[in-house]
Input
Amino acid sequence: MSQKTPLRIYLQCGLLLAAIFVFLGAGDQNARFEDLGHQMMCACGCNQILLECNHVGCPLSDGMRNDLASYIQRGDSDSLIIQAFVQKFGPTVLIAPTTTGFNRLAWIMPYLILILGLGSVYLIVRSWRKRPEPALADGIPHAHGAELDQYSNQVRKETEL
Amino acid sequence: MAQLGSFALMLALALSAYSFVFGLIALIQKNRGSERLAETARRAGIATFAAVLLAALILAVAAFQNDFSIAYIYHHTNRDLEWPYKLAALWSGQEGSLLFWSLLLAAYGLVLRLRHKTDQRLFAHASVVIAGIQIFFLLLLNFAARPFGLMQGAMPADGAGLNPLLQYPEMVIHPPMLYLGYVGFSVPFAFALSALVMRYPGEKWIHITRRWTMVTWGFLTCGVFLGMHWAYAVLGWGGYWGWDPVESASLMPWLTGTAFLHSVMMQEKRGMLKTWNVWLIFITFMLTIFGTDLTRSGMINSVHAFAQSSIGGWFHSFLLIIFVVCLAAYLKNSSFLRSEHKLESLVSREASFLFNNLLLLVACFTVLWGTLFPILSEWVQGHKITVGAPFFNRVNVPVALLLLLLTAVGPLLAWRRTSTESIKRNFKWPALCAVLAGVFLVATPPSWGGPFGMRPWNDISYFYSLMAVMLAVLVAATVISEFVRGGRVISRHTRQNLLASMVHLGHRNTRRYGGYIVHFGVIVVIIGFAGSAFNQDKEQEMTFGDQMTIGSYMLKCESFTQDDNPNYASEWAVIDVFKHGAQIATVYPERRFYKASQQTSTIVANRSTLKEDLYLVYEGQNQTTGHPVIKAHLNPLVMWIWIGAWIMLAGTILALVPNAVPVRAAAPVPVRDAVTVGAGD
Output
C-alpha cells in the first residue's frame, strides 16, 4: 500500500470538515429560512428582500414567508424551494442573477472590466515611461539618478514633508 | 395664471434658441459684428433665467392658492397640505421637477454668463453649450411634460394630495440638493466641450471649472446622503441603501465626478490624462442625464421613481446627440490632448491616481451594469431578472476596500516618484495603528455588541467589516500624520503651537487639506457602513405591558392609540425603552393614513446613539386581535454615516475657500529660492 502524501491527507481532512460544516448547517431550519429568505425578493414590486419586506398592507410577503417555512418543514432541498418560487413568481423573485447560462455574464463583466482596466493601465504606464523627457526652458539640464535623489533628499530635509 | 406660465415657458424656449443659434453664429463668424451678436446671445441667455423663474414662481403660487384647475397642482397637492410640502410639490412630479431642473440650469447659466469677463471667448462657447442643454429641457416642458396643463371639466374641490413618502422635512431639501448636483455638472461639461472645440491652450479651463466641479460634487454628495437619510427615516425597512436603480442613478455620476476631481490634479500638475479628463466629465454629464432618464422613463421599477412617464424617447435621443457631439469634437481635436510628461515610477502620486480612477470607474461600471442587466436579460432571455444588493455588494465591497487602501497610500506618495525609505517612514505608525485596531476588535468580547468581538472567520461580511475598520484607521492615521508633520514645520518657523500651526497649514493650502478632511469624512462613513454587518431585527405583536428584548434593550408596550387630523389619520404605540433595567426613553412608532392620496406611510421611532440605532417600526395591527405589530431593528454605528457626511461637507467647503498667502520659510541652507511648505496637492 502506497503511503499517502501530506497533500492528500490535507485534502481529505478539508473535505471532511466541509461535509461536517454543510451537514451541520443543513440541520438548522432557522438558518435555512434566513438564508433562503435573503436570496429572494418580495414579489409585490416593493423591491425589498423577502425577509425584510415590512411595508404596511403588503399583499404577498406574509404568504411567501409562510410558503418558505412550509417547504423547509417538508424537507425540500434549497434548489427545489428556489425552483418552486421561480415557477410561482417568475425569475425576478431571485435577488441576484444565477451563475448559469446568460446570467453568468452579469457576474463576469465587472471582473472582466477590472482586468481589462488593469491591462490598460499597465500599457499606459509602459508607454508613458518610454516617453522622452520634455525639454526644460532655457536649456536647464534634467537631474537624473543620484543627482535627482540628492535634490529630493534636500527638499525633504528642509520641508520635512 | 396657467396661460401666463405657459407663455413664460414658450418665451424661455425662444430666448434659449436665440442664445444658442446666434451665439453659435457669432463664434463661427469671428468678425467685429459677431461680438455684438455674441453679446445679444449672452443677454438672451440671462433673460432665459428670468422667464423660467417666472414660470416656476407661477407654479408655486398656484400650489399655495390651491389652483386645482392646473392638472399638476391637482395631482400633487391638496388644501390641507402643509406649506413646505406645497413648495416641495414643485419637484415632486414629472413636469414640476423638469421645470425645477430647467430653473437650476438657467441659474447656473446666469452665473456663468455674468462672469463672462473672466475669459470672454471660452465663456461664450460654454454659454452656447448651456443654451443647447436648456433648449432640450424647455422643449420637454413645452411639448412633452407641460406643467401648466389644465384639468378637463369643472375645477375639483380638492387635490389628490402629495405622495405620503414625500411628506417628510428632508424631501423639501433632498431633491434640490440632488438636482443642484446633477444640473451643476452641465457647467464643467460645457467648459470641457468648449475647451476641446477651441483647442484651448493650457490648463486654465481646468482652473476655471475646478470650483464649479467641487461645488457640484458637494451638492451631489449632500443630495445622496440626504436621500439615504430619507430612505432610512421614511421607508421603514431599517436600511439606508438598497441598491435601488434610482439610488444607483445618483451614485454613478458621484463616482465619475469623484474620479474627475482626483485625475484633474494630474492635468494641472503634470499635464497628463488630458483625454481621460475630458471624457470623464463627458461621461459624468451623460450619467446625470441617464439618471434622470431612469427616474422618469419607467425603464426600471423603483420605489423612488415618483415621476414616471413616457418621455424616455426624448432622453434617449438627447443622450445620443450628446454622445455624437462629444465624439465628433474629440475626434476632430484629439491631437490637442497629448500628455506633456512621462510617468517615472509606479510608486508615485500619478500612479495612485491612475489606480484610483480605475477602481472608481469599475465601481461605476458595476452599478451601471447591474442596473441595466434586467433590461438586457429581457432582450436576450425574454424575461427580466432581479439584480439586487448581493450582486452589488459582492463586487463593489472589495473594490471599495481597495479604494480605501489607495486613500491611505495616495496622499503620502510624492509626485514623480517616492523612495522606499519615505514609504517606510510614513507608513510605519499608521500601519501599526490599523493592526492594533484590528486586534482590539477581534480580542474584545462579542457581548460588547456592534462591531466589538468581531469573528471575521464566521462570515464574509464580518471579514469585510474588519478590513473596512482597519483601513479606515489606516487612512485616519495617515491624514492625522500629514497634518501633524506639516503643522510641525510651520510651528518651527512661526513659533505657533502645533494646533494653531495645523489650522494655519489648512488655510495655506485649502484644497489639499480640505481634501484630507473629505477623506476623513469618507472613512467615518465607511465605519458606519461596516456596522451594517451586525444589524439585528425582531418582530412581535405587542399589547399593553408586553415586552420584547433586542440586544441590550428591553422594550415595553405602555399603550397604543390613534388620532385624526384633516391631512391624515394615524395610529401609534407608546413604547418604553429600558437598558440594564433602567428606563432611558419613551418612543412612538407610528403609521399614518393620508386621506387625499389614500396611501399609508410609516413614521419610524429611532433612538440614535454613536454606538447603535434602536429603530422601531409600527408595522400595522393584527387583523384578528387588533394589537399593534412592532418591528425592532438594532443597527450599529449608523450615526457615524451622518457625521461622516457632515465632515465631508466641511472638507468640501474648506477646499473651496481661497488659500491664505503662504508664509515663506527661511531655508536653513542657501538655495536659489525660499521653500514654500504645504503648497503641493
Q: What stands out?
A: Residues 541-638 of chain B form one domain. Chain B touches chain A through 68 residues (CB under 8 Å).
